[in-house]
Each structure stands twice: as C-alpha cells, then as structure tokens.
C-alpha cells in the first residue's frame, strides 16, 4: 500500500480498464455502488468500449493535427469518416510486451501508455462529471496473467506501464487488485453467509481465476491473506475465440486454402502472414501497402478461385476490419444462444455489394476451433485447485462473470467439475468495477 501523499479527498472509485470494455464505479456516502453510464449509439450503457480513434484534420492555416476520440464516439466517428484514420482496440493486450513500445500513426510515434492514458482520461472526466466528484484515486483491476506474459516479471512490467498510464491520465494515486478478486467482492455483497468460492472471469483478453473465502463473517472478522487460497489465469479469452473464427471460417472464404498456378506447380495463392493480420482486425489497416497490393494482384491472376482473392482485396482496400470484426462477434454471440448460426458479412451498396459472404456454422464446429484454448483454460483451473489443495467438492459456489462466460463451452468446464447447481453468474460487464469500488473503500479506510 502506498502512503497517502495527496491533499485531495480521495473517493472510493473502482476502475476496470478492460481489453474490450471498461467500467467505472463509485462507492458513495450511502454505501451504494454507483456505476458510471455512457451514451452509446442512442442508449446509455455501463460499459465503455475500450477503443481509440486517431484522425487527422487540417487547421485554418493548413497545418495537419491529430485528434483522438475514445469509446462509442470513436466508433461513430470512424464509421462516418470519408478518409479513415486509425481505430485501435485491445490496447491492454500489449502491456506485457517489452518489444511493443507504441505505434506509429500519421508518421508520429505514440507510446502505448499515452494511448491508454487518453482513454483513461476521458473515462475519468466523464465519471467525475456524473458522480459530481473529482477523481484523484482509483482501485484498478489487473488480470492474474496479462496477455502474452510468460513470467511474473512480465506481469510486473505490465502493471508498471498501467500505473504510468493512470498517472499520465491525471490520477494522483492508484492501487491494484486482481480482477477475479474484485469480482469476488461484488459477489460477496450478495451473500448472507460465508462461502468458499471459485471465481471465473472471462473477458476479451484474459481468463482469470481466484479461489477464496468470502461472506459477511469474513468481512466482520477482517480479511486475512489466508482467505485467498490462490489465483491463476491464462492470457486468452474472447479475442482469441474471434481469431479462431477468422482463421477457420472467414479466411478460407477469402482464399487462405486456395491455390495458384506457379510454373507447373500448385502453391498457396496468398502467403499465410497476410491472413494472420486478419485475425487481429485492427491490424488490417497495416495491410494497405503497395507490397501487399502487388502480392494480391498477382495472386488474383494466377489463383484457381480469383473471386476469393478479389474479396480479400476489397476487404483490405475498403479497410473493413471493424465491420468484419462486428460480423465475427455477431456469429459468436449467436452461437452462445443457438446450436447453429450463419456468418453474414455484406458490405457495399444493397444492389451491388462489394463483399457478400454467407457461411453456415454450428456450435460444435466453433467448439472444435477453440478446443486448444478451452484446454488451456481447463489446465489453469485444475492447477489452481491442485496447488491450493482444494477438492472440487469443497467449493461452495462458482461465480462466472465477464462477457466470454456466455460461451456454453466455457460454462461446461465448470458444470462437469462442480455440477450446474453450484454455478452462479451475472453482471458480466460490471462486476469487476463494482468489486473494485468496494476494495477501494477498504484500501482507503486502512490507509487513512
Ligand atoms: N453473448 C456472448 N457470447 C460470447 N462472447 C461474448 C458474448 N458477449 C460478449 N462476449 C465477449 O466478451 C468479451 C468482452 O467481455 P468483457 O467486457 O468482460 O471483457 P474485458 O473486461 O474488456 O476484457 P479483459 O477482462 O480480458 O480485460 C468480448 O470478447 C466479447 O466478444
Ligand atoms: Mg474484464
């Protein structure tokens, strides 16, 4: 815990900066948790899309300036823009990478921490206005294991960068709490008795687990480190599932399995690295280069299925990465509800679409594509139980949260180990921020 150095009154604010969605919560004087809400496409939502849009404009004297927008406004502006700027998502997934220091946009380098700080700053301002309180402090969530992290040092490095981003966004003090522990605090608030619980938080970037004792009795006697039996996590979740859908469903329709004649041989029409860039949709704009243009033009001439290569060219030239990702998400969501669905991606004029893909897909197929991811998740949960010396029978309840906990195959992992009766779920997009606000109040009361 850091010493209090600030003169400002610190409010109990919880800040969940998520890979896909972010939320901010406040524990107010009435001991109620209040969630900030954000206008989004005509409605109000409690989660803010963690996206950033950088666009260029000309000032009166003709100079070029860059302008940054965040959240739903970023998406709206991007979709309306004639001349597209750069839409960036999943920034949190790069925090552990020592080689990724930032990115170049319009010929200028931006540090990752500063890009994240833009988003945090907007969220902070918006929440402060809504809560009618200045925000100088936050309890910030962190995954057990960041995306791409291989060692505890990588995780420490990611946290130090996140701290730097919060400082750059104007926070005077931040503390960190594990995201699943925060979700546990939110769940605990609903309890009238103590329980040993397993939390599973499945987001866009990471899947995180904690095993801990919670409840009114635990709170009354005061939490001890022994209440937390262990944590585990893997740096994969919803984004990884999306990437599998692109690889297995979308890329083949764009020629990834297609061949082209080269002398007397048949070879892959387009090099695999081009499709790898489709799997992270916001990398698609990196493919608008003369080199790629040349490769694809010559592939289209030689390919046995030139129409697939043409669709790929259109996707890249029209910079449809965001729209493609929306279609991928839509089919994924549908497969959470139904046994089968249709992937549908249609762009251009209604009479003459430039791309029109309709591909049926079953939940079973989707589950086979994410099989390795599911195994990694299972391993992580089993290790947590083994390392804590806890038999699944001893766990009173399992609480599942985060958007990717809607995936039936993810839920099944818990059903087979614990039975459906012991599983609870809810507040998929806000439980972490809610719990962080409660943890913020605990931290402030301990340090005051
Ligand atoms: N109905 C659904 N079925 C399947 N996946 C879903 C559904 N709804 C949301 N998702 C996925 O949930 C993920 C977002 O969840 P969430 O907002 O909890 O993540 P996050 O907190 O931003 O990420 P992280 O915790 O990893 O930093 C996205 O990958 C999204 O596609
Ligand atoms: Mg999350």
Write the layout of secondary structure elements.
Elements: E1 13-16, E2 21-27, E3 33-35, E4 38-40, E5 43-45, E6 48-49, E7 51-58, E8 64-70, H1 71-80, E9 86-89, E10 102-105, E11 108-111, H2 112-131, E12 137-142, H3 152-168, E13 173-178, H4 179-188, E14 195-202, E15 207-214, H5 216-221, E16 228-234, H6 238-253, E17 259-262, E18 265-268, H7 272-278, H8 290-302, H9 306-317, H10 321-337, E19 340-348, E20 353-362, H11 363-369, H12 371-388, E21 397-401, H13 408-418, E22 423-425, H14 431-447
Parallel strand pairs: 1-12, 12-13, 14-21, 21-22
Antiparallel strand pairs: 1-2, 2-3, 2-6, 4-5, 7-8, 7-9, 10-11, 14-15, 15-16, 17-18, 19-20
Bound molecules: adenosine-5'-triphosphate and magnesium ion.
Task: Write out key terms for the chains shown.
27% strand; globular; binds adenosine-5'-triphosphate; 448 residues; 22 strands; single chain; binds magnesium ion; alpha+beta; six-stranded mixed sheet
Structural class: alpha+beta
DSSP summary: helix tally: 14
Query: C-alpha Rg, in Å?
Result: 23 Å
* Largest sheet report: 6 strands, mixed
Provide the CATH superfamily of the domain at 13-193 and 427-447: ATPase, nucleotide binding domain
Give the cofactors and ligands: adenosine-5'-triphosphate, magnesium ion
User: According to CATH, what is the topology of the domain at 13-193 and 427-447?
Assistant: Nucleotidyltransferase, domain 5
CATH architecture of the domain at 13-193 and 427-447: 2-Layer Sandwich
Report the CATH C-level class of the domain at 13-193 and 427-447.
Alpha Beta
Query: Span between N and C termini?
Result: 11 Å
What is the typical, i.e. mean, pLDDT?
Answer: 94
Helix content: 40-55%
Indicate the low-confidence ranges by residue numbers. none
| Beta strand % | 25-35%
Described by the principal axes of the CA atoms, the overall outline is globular
Q: How many strands in all? A: 22
